[in-house]
UniProtKB/TrEMBL annotation:
Gene3D superfamilies xrefs: Tetracycline Repressor, domain 2
Signal peptide interval: none
DNA-binding region ranges: 33-52
Organism: Aquamicrobium lusatiense
Protein name, UniProt field: AcrR family transcriptional regulator
Alphabetical keyword list: DNA-binding
PANTHER family hit by this protein: HTH-TYPE TRANSCRIPTIONAL REGULATOR RUTR (PTHR30055), HTH-TYPE TRANSCRIPTIONAL REGULATOR UIDR (PTHR30055:SF223)
Entry-linked InterPro entries: Homeodomain-like_sf, HTH-type_TetR-like_transc_reg, HTH_TetR, Rv0078-like_C, Tet_transcr_reg_TetR-rel_C_sf
Pfam families: TetR_C_41 (PF21351), TetR_N (PF00440)
């Protein structure tokens, strides 16, 4: 029985994205070739051009997929936290620790900005900002953090964490850089707290 066209399209896209992820992490964006993607996926260059436009478009699709997986992982880990404030902190700090993972380091934090430009302009950035904004508003309602514009704070936090993650990914000793970044980032987040607020009390 012939598969529906929508299912065939989804399978073709998935094959190309999977092949690209493998090539990008093993060889890097500059060294990975169109033939690497198509040969691995068993498809033609025409299929790649049709679905992604070019190599750059394929990189963006790969980053969107990885970003979605990162968001799911961050949300799942944050659900284990003891309080709303701790969930907020853990979600942001765990993002920095993900910068130690080879695939995220190379594709998202090194090649991504070099090829696609400023990460704050990527489509994935808006979702991140909205998640952080929502978390700040919830904490304000609980009387845990100061009154401020939630979106402005979210953009500042996102900018700081993105820049720190890029620093970690490109550092001579990523683990050491991550330790320093996490410690400093927690102190920055503590600055959001109202004087006398008990972070562990907001459930």
């Amino acid at each position: 029985m012939r598969k529906p066209r929508s299912e065939m399209i989804a399978e073709t896209r998935a094959k190309l994205i999977d092949a690209a992820r493998k090539a990008f992490v093993e060889k890097g964006y500059a060294e990975a070739s169109m033939d690497d993607f198509t040969a691995e996926a068993g498809l033609t260059r025409g299929a790649l051009y049709h679905h992604f436009g070019d190599k750059k478009g394929l990189l963006l699709a790969v980053i969107v997929e990885i970003d979605a997986e990162m968001s799911e992982r961050l949300a799942a880990a944050a659900d284990m936290s003891a309080s709303r404030w701790q969930r907020f902190v853990d979600q942001n700090v765990n993002y920095l620790n993900m910068a130690l993972e080879p695939e995220i380091q190379r594709i998202v934090l090194c090649d991504g900005p070099a090829v696609l430009g400023n990460p704050s302009a990527w489509p994935t950035a808006l979702n991140c900002i909205e998640v952080i904004s929502s978390g700040i508003r919830e904490l304000q309602e609980e009387g845990v953090v100061r009154e401020m514009d939630a979106e402005a704070a979210a953009r500042l936090i996102t900018g700081a964490s993105t820049f720190a993650a890029q620093w970690i990914a490109n550092a001579p000793d990523p683990a050491a850089a991550a330790g320093k970044a996490v410690e400093a980032f927690k102190m920055l987040l503590d600055g959001l707290l109202l004087d006398g607020a008990a972070p562990g009390s907001a459930c």
